[in-house]
């Protein structure tokens, strides 16, 4: 059930000059967020910035929830200023997450940059062997590596476009290669808008078992403003309710 | 303490309503608040046929406000009556339906189908008239007059509310609306506005122009409510950037009998309840027995 409340900041871990991990005191055990679901977060009492910002659940345990956040504009800058003991406004868990793999399916997780956030939780939810492809433009876009390396039962492949780490190339190149090798794959993808656009152009990936988490600007996050509409084969869908995870074949 | 107000024949237990397009059709919000505690619910604008709306991006945040170009996306009249209205009927609150059309006939069809089915009909006239090359009903005197006159003939049981656009001169248009038989006025709708991405030199919204709402427009809205109040005797529903009970009181002092909460619902799903509590607190601390006693209570002749 979705809840709207004030959550205390337990800790803020700085991961790079642009990335941080925010841990909030949220009774996660009762809310049980699924990988791919998200929260809307707001801090401060000022009307500027006005709207809440959406962030995927990165991780949770009995009494806390973690969000992996990349500093972008004013809202995330403001979130970076919070400190232990402060309270932030949260609403969640929202949206529909990734469906878990069925028996016999080979999970392949594909994350670009900050898109790794929901995939980390998904990788932890899947208790069978999985392949994880993680990439960015260069090595400084590969965040939270120390966390990702710790996920059990995972074959991790790293990609950078400039070759500064791992294999030179994109995760989508990597995905095509993986797909030639594995039988009955189920693919989970989250990455920047550009990557999703490229993905939509790859006709050969339009098998049924590819799930993509998409982003759209949001105001309410609860389905009432219709601001987050995303064009699909069945007309406009709300990213905050029918998404953010869609089947690639729907897009 | 009396919070009850009257808009046309609608008796509301308190003056707090929802602004059209910011509250869906109810069910989403019922997870967060008790809908029965609202003065009235105003649903998303309905057209004769369903509309897909505009392509994304549809939203852009601006200082203390936001632009939207939803493009009047809605389920259409038939689906509204079949799928949405039964849910709202379960609650003990007045239901007001916002209607939008591309021609006078469309407004009339909507009015006929909804009259007596719902407590109130609110005409959103910030819609382009297809036959006159896209001129807004809300900014053309002749179109505005005609559409209200025709709809009035068809609304016999429900309360008829005319929603004013901030683009037209308020005094003149309030007077026309009242003369053509509107039972109440509501204002303001969003203010047309533009934001530009200076890197791509393209508008921030796919559609270009969007409607500005939120705290940024509040002073404009309060002024317009005040002007309308001085021009007509029918009750006024004030809206535009209401976030708190204090904001609502400002509108009431300017002349609003009821207030509608819009963009604030996106920030706090329980914004209407916060506003209601704020109004109560103000009345208590200022010894006000009846909310109606301070409608238009601004101490200024203008
Ligand atoms: C479902 C979902 C999950 C997300 N998960 C994460 C996450 O786990 N970690 C993370 O760092 N970021 C995530 N994002 C992106 C994040 O919401 C934006 O980066 C953030 O809102 C930017 O706010 P800002 O004020 O710093 O930037 P600004 O650019 O100043 O924001 C201006 C406006 O644009 C909106 N906006 C800007 N970028 C985006 C975007 N990419 N998607 C949607 N709205 C945007 C903001 O919400 C705000 O309303 C997610 C977005 C969505 C839709
Ligand atoms: C996302 C959004 C959708 C809206 N849709 C409608 C609509 O369908 N019909 C209408 O008359 N007004 C619509 N409005 C205008 C609001 O009802 C209200 O007049 C305006 O937003 C000012 O109030 P606010 O600043 O409190 O939001 C919409 C506003 C927003 C922000
Ligand atoms: S963000 Fe408002 S409907 Fe999705």
**Which stretches of chain B are poorly predicted, pLDDT < 50 over at least 5 residues?**
none
Largest interface: A-B, 31 and 36 residues
Low-confidence stretches of chain A: none
Fill in the CATH topology of the largest domain in chain A.
Rossmann fold
- What is the level 1 CATH name of the largest domain in chain A? Alpha Beta
Folded structure, characterized:
- The complex is a heterodimer of chains A (251) and B (302).
- Chain A is α/β, with parallel strands linked by helices and 251 residues long.
- Chain A folds into 2 domains: 3-94, Translation factors (Elongation Factor Tu (Ef-tu), domain 3), CATH 2.40.30; 106-213, Nucleotide-binding domain of ferredoxin-NADP reductase (FNR) module (Rossmann fold), CATH 3.40.50.
- Chain A has helices spanning 28-31, 74-80, 116-125, 145-148, 171-181, 193-201, and strands at 3-14, 19-25, 38-42, 53-56, 59-61, 64-70, 87-94, 106-112, 130-136, 154-160, 167-168, 185-190, 210-213, 229-232, 235-238, 245-247.
- In chain A, the strands form 3 sheets. A 7-stranded antiparallel beta sheet of chain A has the order 4-3-7-1-2-6-5. In chain A, strands 11-10-9-8-12-13-16 form a 7-stranded mixed beta sheet, sandwiched between helices.
- Chain A is globular.
- In chain A, 47% of the residues are buried.
- Chain B is α/β, with parallel strands linked by helices and 302 residues long.
- Chain B has a single domain (5-294), classed as Aldolase class I (TIM Barrel, Alpha-Beta Barrel).
- In chain B, 31% of the residues lie in helices and 22% in strands.
- Chain B has 9 helices and 18 strands.
- Chain B has helices spanning 27-30, 77-89, 104-114, 141-154, 170-179, 218-231, 245-254, 264-267, 271-285, and strands at 5-7, 10-12, 16-18, 41-46, 59-62, 65-68, 95-99, 120-124, 128-129, 135-136, 159-163, 184-187, 191-193, 196-197, 202-203, 210-213, 236-239, 258-261.
- Chain B has an 8-stranded parallel beta sheet with strand order 3-18-17-12-11-8-7-4, with helices on one face.
- In chain B, α7 (245-254) links the parallel β17 and β18.
- The two termini of chain B are 30 Å apart.
- The structure holds flavin-adenine dinucleotide, flavin mononucleotide and FE2/S2 (inorganic) cluster.
- Flavin-adenine dinucleotide binds at residues 38, 49, 51, 53-56, 67-70, 72-76, 114, 117, 215, 217-218, 244 of chain A.
- Flavin mononucleotide binds at residues 19-22, 44-45, 68, 70, 98, 124, 163, 189-190, 213-214, 217, 239-242, 262-264 of chain B.
